[in-house]
Amino acid sequence: MELAALGDSALILRVGDSLGEVLAAVRRLEAAQLPGVVEVAPAFASVAIFLQSPEHLANCAAAIPAALGGRRRAATTARAPRSLEVPVCYDLEFALDLEEVAQHCGLSPNEVVTRHAAARYHVRCIGFTPGFPYLSGLPAVLMTPRRATPRTAVPAGSVAIAGGQAGIYPLRSPGGWNIIGRTPLRLFDAFREPAALCAPGDRLRFVAITPEEFSRWKK
After folding, report:
1. Which of 48, 61, 62, 89 could share a disulfide with 214, CB 3.0–4.6 Å?
2. DSSP 53
3. Is 61 inside any structural domain?
């Protein structure tokens, strides 16, 4: 592991490219309740530790190795990983890039849908926009580069892939991932607790639904 400053009021802990390593580091840091820490945020292969002020930087950096090396205690605020089913309509009305993805992969659109829905995913981290889950588990045959020109507005609920990852756009936002479907679920709601539907460590699978089911779900 490597620890470095992230500005004057934060630290970044770089760990191996393993979801288990990231989550273990997060839980140990949360359980340690280090003075001055206001948030511990997991990323794909690192953990950010945000502090109240620059005055806490040196002491926190010195305390982190012991916190990581000590016996892990359960963090009282930790949320247990869950298994989620996300309904997705892969109809071309919502799957704006499905045909291009199919052509790139040498598959038919139906084969892309079948393979995407058959896979099992893990939420690696949340970022980019509030509630956006970065998902590992995309079948290698579906790996597709990002779009050469990002869209200025991607509809909320869009299910997308880029490189070796899958994701879901919680909010209408710019984006350059390939859109292959849309879910009627609301992934982020500021008035809900927790606001984000997904959390790092959650397991996720996509379930194909028809346009009629999508319409009924939205009502």
Report:
1. 89
2. S
3. yes
- Are residues 61 and 130 both part of a single domain? no
User: What confidence tens digit (pLDDT) does each residue in 130-175 have?
Assistant: 999 999 999 999 999 999 999 999 999 999 999 999 999 999 999 9
Other CB atoms within a 10 A radius of the CB of residue 33 amount to: 11
Give the span between the Cα atoms of 101 and 95, in whole angstroms.
10
CB 195 within 8 A of CB 74: no
Amino acid at 80: A
- Structure-token match 């998902």, residue found: 135
Residue 161's φ and ψ, nearest 5 degrees, are: -135, 155
User: Chunked in runs of 10, what are the mean pLDDT values of the chain (219 residues)?
Assistant: 92 86 90 93 91 94 89 54 95 97 97 98 92 96 96 97 97 97 96 92 96 89
